[in-house]
Write a structure and sequence with these properties.
It is a multi-pass membrane protein. This protein is mostly helical. The protein has helices spanning 2-16, 18-29, 38-49, 53-81, 95-108, 110-117, 127-133, 138-174, 176-181. It has one domain (2-181). The chain starts with a helix and ends with a helix.
Length: 182
Amino acid sequence: MFGLDAATALALVDTYGAVAVFAVFALEGALVGKVLPARTLFVASVVAVGVEAIAVLPVFAAAVIGATVGQSAVFVAVRRFGVDPTSLPLVPVDEKRLDGAGRWFDRWGLPAVAASNAVPGTRGWLAVPTANASSVSAPRFAVASLIGSTAYVGALLAVGVAVALGFGGALGLLGAEDVAAL
């Protein structure tokens, strides 16, 4: 299954570049389930573009900004329009998890938003309770989301670079003649 996801991710990156990364991370940030696993897409993107900073920077920025835009959209939708994302079948968050996230926010405030965004599995969940039960402004929420998403994507970048260098190192060990024969 991982091979199929990686192949699809590489095809999307090859065709659409950082825009594909932005779209998938925005959907993930908006709690709309997984179109493609965002982590797989990001790591595959880093492998595809290489490890040089100038090539990786647009992919990194697209992931961080996409996640922040998606989470901010949920925050605004809940705060301004009274949307309940948990009522949508696409959103994999139930009331029990939202209650736990709300207690976490009550105890730690905006740093909890940043921390939860840095941890796989909890990313974006604090958008709903923060919008419902606090006076936090949308820009302050977006900054906290951005900080956490930057940490998360930075960790993914380290994984992507390790994978890319691992592939490059393995091909280098084969020698140029052997690589051409493949």
